[in-house]
Amino acid sequence: MITIVDYQMGNLRSVQKAIEHVGYEARISSDAHEIANAEKLILPGVGGFGDAMAELQRRDLVQPIRDFIATDRPFLGICLGLQLLFEKGYEGGSYDGLGVLPGEVVRFECPAPLKVPHMGWNTVQVQRQPPILESDVDGAYFYFVHSYYVVPEDPSVVALSTDYGGPFCAMVWRDNLFATQFHPEKSQANGLRLLERFALLETAVGHG
C-alpha cells in the first residue's frame, strides 16, 4: 500500500490512478497517524511553496513527514513535493521548507524566447542512476510544469538534470528518498515505469 499525502495542493487522484494502473494499491490520506505509519509515502503538489507549507503545518503533517523520511521506508516527492524538501523557497516571499535537504528553491531567469513557467516535455540527463529508473532513461522525455527549481547545496544528491536556459536539477536521490521536478503521472510510459519501480522497492533501498 502506497499512501499519498493530502494537503489540498496536488492532483492527488491522478497520482493514485497512475499507481493503480501499474497494479498497486494507493490511498489518499491527510491523517497524521496513517502518514507516519505508511509503508511507502508520496508527497505530490501543485501550487505555491508558502501556501503548501502553511497547509502542512495547519494539518500537523510536517513532523510526521520528516519522521517518515528519517526511516528506511521509500519516499517519493513530485514537483512541489520535491521543492518542499529543501530549506527555503522564494515564491512570493521567503518561506521555510521541510529542511530535509540543504538548499533553496528559486525562480527561472530564462533568456528569450524561453518562457516561464517551463511547461511541457523535456529530456533528462542521468547524473547518478537511481533504482527507480531504468538504465536507458538518459535522454528520455518527462512532463514538466513549474516556474521554480531546486538548487541543492550538495550536488551529490542530484540524480537527473534537465536543461531549460541552463541545467537544473530534475530529480534528487538520497538513500530512501526520491523526488522529481517532473510529473511521473503525466509522463506516460516513462513515468508509469518510474512509479512501478517505486512501488516495487523493498523497505530498505541502501545508500545512494
Automatic annotation (TrEMBL):
Keywords: Amino-acid biosynthesis, Cytoplasm, Glutamine amidotransferase, Glycosyltransferase, Histidine biosynthesis, Hydrolase, Lyase, Transferase. It comes from the Bacteria. Residues 4-198 form the Glutamine amidotransferase domain. Its EC number is 4.3.2.10, 3.5.1.2. Its main location: cytoplasm. GO terms for cellular component: cytoplasm. It catalyses: 5-[(5-phospho-1-deoxy-D-ribulos-1-ylimino)methylamino]-1-(5-phospho-beta-D-ribosyl)imidazole-4-carboxamide + L-glutamine = D-erythro-1-(imidazol-4-yl)glycerol 3-phosphate + 5-amino-1-(5-phospho-beta-D-ribosyl)imidazole-4-carboxamide + L-glutamate + H(+); L-glutamine + H2O = L-glutamate + NH4(+). One of its GO terms (molecular function) is imidazoleglycerol-phosphate synthase activity. SUPFAM superfamilies: Class I glutamine amidotransferase-like. Pfam families: GATase. It is found in: Cytoplasm. The active site is at residues 79, 183, 185. GO terms for biological process: L-histidine biosynthetic process. The keyword Cell membrane does not apply. Pathway: Amino-acid biosynthesis; L-histidine biosynthesis; L-histidine from 5-phospho-alpha-D-ribose 1-diphosphate: step 5/9. Heterodimer of HisH and HisF. IGPS catalyzes the conversion of PRFAR and glutamine to IGP, AICAR and glutamate. The HisH subunit catalyzes the hydrolysis of glutamine to glutamate and ammonia as part of the synthesis of IGP and AICAR. The resulting ammonia molecule is channeled to the active site of HisF. This is Imidazole glycerol phosphate synthase subunit HisH. It comes from Roseimaritima ulvae. The gene is hisH1.
